[in-house]
Write a structure and sequence with these properties.
CATH class of the largest domain: Mainly Alpha
Distance between the termini: 52 Å
Number of domains: 2
Radius of gyration: 21 Å
Number of strands: 0
Largest sheet: none
Strand content: under 5%
CATH topology of the largest domain: Na+/H+ antiporter like fold
Shape: globular
Helix content: over 70%
CATH architecture of the largest domain: Up-down Bundle
């Protein structure tokens, strides 16, 4: 199946499932699409093992032709991060910069090691042999909260604005740190080599380089936007920032996610008032909202379909079930430390720690990262464990975080 056929099938399924969910089920759109994709995937598996054995190889071949990891990390992520940052209020985010910064840096690193060591203990407890370094790889890929999942679900969850800003801000910022930690852990796991200087240099190159590139892209785009007043051209300029900027970041080995967040936040806050007319901003806002919703729908559809390529042996799924509370425990620790450190200087909303813990959703980025790992027994195990954690995060945490927030902050 070529790329155009695959895209047509995905968009058609996403539209059908979105309509069916809106008409008959009533879940948040992204969750409803994922649930229906899961149901369809399970149906394909059951039919493939009974009456239509050719269905499973067809479904797996279709997913292989898409390449979930490349589609998300090298395609959708740039658009979704830019769109998310475009509508973030920088003034409100700046007021919470310390807790957001600590959660997105130290919190990710702390969670990586807590999850890694807990995973090593759990895996050995149930007789699954896996080196500690691969457990730390799992910790790195599952620790960052997913901005796509967070932005897609919190919009309708009813979380208080102050807590929503912290969760969204953290999820937008932590990708750069998480990517560096992930690359370091994978490098150690595959080559056995890493130095403190090399790790520091990689962090500076990726994170700081991505920040500088984002500022540069935003500055150039701002000047171009301010010089004209034609919304079609101005939308095209923002598309160039995303497509061209992300490609440039990739070629320079800089953090594309950080560059997109910085560029989107600056254009959405500074350029909206000083470089665009109200009419242009209205058109641009509607364009990026629509694109964001469409890509989210396709992404959550893909998450639901990925069940077709999972292993269904008992060990990996048992490990996944046991790791769900372990990941939540690590998230609790990663949230509690910065909140308690900063509580001396500022007042947090009632229930801040449990809401931040439960609202730290995992999603497509974790699945994409684990699918990018080199082929091997470790990858097969971690794919299933990651999928189990992501499913729980989206289906259970995503559907209840609003209710929890309202109860604790009332």
């Amino acid at each position: 199946m070529n790329s155009l056929d695959a895209a047509g099938l995905l968009v058609s399924l996403a539209a059908l499932f979105a309509w069916f969910n809106h008409r008959f089920i009533g879940l948040p759109t992204t969750i409803g699409i994922m649930v229906l994709a899961l149901v369809m995937s399970v149906g394909i598996l059951l039919a493939g093992h009974t009456v239509a054995p050719g269905l499973i190889p067809w479904g797996q071949g279709f997913l292989d032709s898409i390449d979930f990891s490349a589609t998300v990390l090298d395609g959708m992520l740039s658009f979704l991060l830019f769109a998310g940052a475009l509508f973030v209020d920088l003034k409100t985010l700046a007021e919470r910069k310390y807790v957001v910064g600590m959660l997105a840096t130290g919190g990710v690193i702390l969670s990586t090691f807590i999850v890694g060591f807990l995973a090593w203990g759990v895996f050995n407890l149930i007789g699954v042999s896996i080196p500690l370094i691969w457990c730390l790889v799992f910790g790195a890929l599952i620790s960052p909260t997913d901005p796509i999942a967070v932005l897609g679900i919190l919009k309708s969850a009813g979380v208080p604005k102050s807590l929503e800003t912290k969760i969204v801000g953290e999820s937008l910022v932590n990708d750069g740190v998480a990517m560096v930690v992930f690359l370091v852990m994978v490098g150690i796991a595959t080559t056995g080599q890493a130095t403190l200087g090399g790790v520091a240099l990689l962090f500076v190159q990726e994170a700081v380089g991505g920040l500088v590139l984002g500022l540069l892209l935003a500055g150039i785009a701002h000047r171009m936007l301010a010089s004209i007043d034609q919304y079609q051209v101005e939308i095209l300029i923002t598309l160039a920032v995303v497509l061209g900027g992300y490609s440039l970041a990739h070629s320079l080995h800089l953090s594309g996610p950080i560059a997109m967040v910085v560029a989107g936040a600056i254009l959405g806050n500074r350029s909206r008032d000083s470089a665009m007319s109200k009419s242009t901003w209205s058109h641009l806002e509607h364009f990026w909202e629509l694109l964001d919703e469409m890509l989210n729908a396709v992404l959550f559809l893909l998450i639901g379909l990925e069940v077709l390529v999972l292993s269904f042996t008992v060990g990996p799924w048992l490990a996944g079930a046991l790791m769900i509370p372990m990941v939540l425990l690590a998230r609790l620790c990663a949230v509690s430390v910065p909140v308690m450190m900063l509580s001396r200087f500022r007042t947090f909303s009632p229930g801040a720690i449990p809401v931040l813990t439960w609202g730290g959703l995992r999603g497509g980025i974790s699945v994409a990262l684990v699918l990018s790992l080199p082929t091997g027994d470790e990858r097969d195990l971690l794919v299933t464990v990651t999928y189990a954690v992501v499913l729980f995060s989206l289906l259970v945490q995503g559907l209840t975080v609003g209710r929890l927030a309202r109860r604790l902050t009332a």
